[in-house]
Amino acid sequence: MLEKVAFTMYPVVDVDRACDFYENTLGLKRGSHGHQDGQYWIEYDLPGGGCFALTNATPSKPSEAAGGTVGFEVDDLDATVADLKHKGVTFRSDIIVTPVCRMAVCVDSEGNALLLHQLKRK
Helices (H), strands (E): how many in the chain? Predict the structure, then answer.
């Protein structure tokens, strides 16, 4: 019945600030996007597959305590964390180590939680 996750979406309040964070701080490239009457939808197609979207067109408000978290796979967690801390990104955890991965939780410009994830090499 279900085929795949079509996209993952986070609500934003300040569209320009959010786009600046995702494009300039995280380095994502803007894909499909549009707006009407001040309501925006911005998509970022990820190099390894998947689509991440931002919108202010829903009644949802950004929250790191909302229960949902986007996990972005990275190739070098230590370097990514160091780079983002240097850019002023707030982290909610130190690096968490599990038997299969390492991860750290930070917060985007709007207050949504982001999990940075790196699978351990086999």
Answer: 2, 8
Count the alpha carbons within 13 Å of 102 in the hemisphere toward its beta carbon: 13
Q: Which residue has the tokens 């996007």?
A: 33
Element (H, E) at 105: strand 101-107
> And the tokens for 21?
């964070």
Which tens digits make up the pLDDT trace of 81-121?
999 999 999 999 999 999 999 999 999 999 999 999 999 98
Query: From the CA atom positions of the chain, what is the Rg in Å?
Result: 15
Label residues 98-107 b or e (16+ Cβ within 10 Å = b).
Answer: eeeebbbbbe
Distance CA 93, CA 89 (A): 12
pLDDT digits (tens, 9 = 90+) for 7-23: 999 999 999 999 999 99
Place of tokens 């894909």: 31
Cβ pair 119, 97 in contact under 8 A: no
